[in-house]
Amino acid sequence: MNIGSDKVDLQCDRIIIHAREPMDWPIREFCRVPISIQGQKYYLRSRRPAERPFAMIYELWPWPVDVHEASNKEIVYDEAYVLERDMTAVKNRRRELLYWVLVPLYPFLGLCWSRFKDRVLRPWGFEAKSITAASIALIFWLFIAEGICVGWLVGGILTYGLGHAALRPLDWMLMFLLGTDSVMRFGQSLKFDVEDHWGFCEWVWPGRR
């Protein structure tokens, strides 16, 4: 029979489940996890990879009558369980795909403010401390590049990028801003009790942190 997207083979002494998505069912000799199927109690005996379109094959045996030690976690395997498992698997694949799409922007993600990192980027797999450290390094090297352009080449990133000499005062301001931001955020990152890892210029508005 089919339970959701899975194919279930009911045999006389066991149940074979061809699952579309892997399930984190542990195999144990002691303190086994009871699995309830249509009111009957089973335990996981073995599992192995399956051929497409299925992902794994799970072999369940009837729960021994003389075994009274069991895990306090019981699994009810039904259509609702399979549906929730499949939806979770789809979300995880989308999250993983989005993660690899954003990986090339890793240093730039650290420029986002702390709340955005915690609420949005952290569930996608980006650790706030790591991306903030990468963004501090990025801002520091931009500060070095801007300093070379302004002090030695008599120009700047904005001046050379946009081709207007009148933008040189803005390059001085940009150099000062990049240097200050890298120092402020690097100093905060050295503290042990940091909860909010600052984004670019977040230190300017302490009331919003």
- Provide mean pLDDT, rounded: 88
Shape: elongated
Q: What is the structural class?
A: alpha+beta
Helix content: 40-55%
The rounded distance between the terminal residues' Cα atoms is 55 Å
Q: State which percent range the strand residues make up.
A: 15-25%
Number of strands: 7
How would you sum up the major sheet? 7 strands, mixed
Oligomer state of the chains in this structure: single chain
Tally of distinct domains: 2
Strand numbers in spatial order across the main sheet: 1-2-3-6-5-4-7
Order of helices and strands: EEEEEEEHHHHHH
Task: Work out the helix count.
Answer: 6
Q: C-alpha Rg, in Å?
A: 28 Å
Low-confidence stretches: none
Overview features:
single chain; 209 residues; 6 helices; 2 domains; alpha+beta; seven-stranded mixed beta sheet; 16% strand; 7 strands; elongated
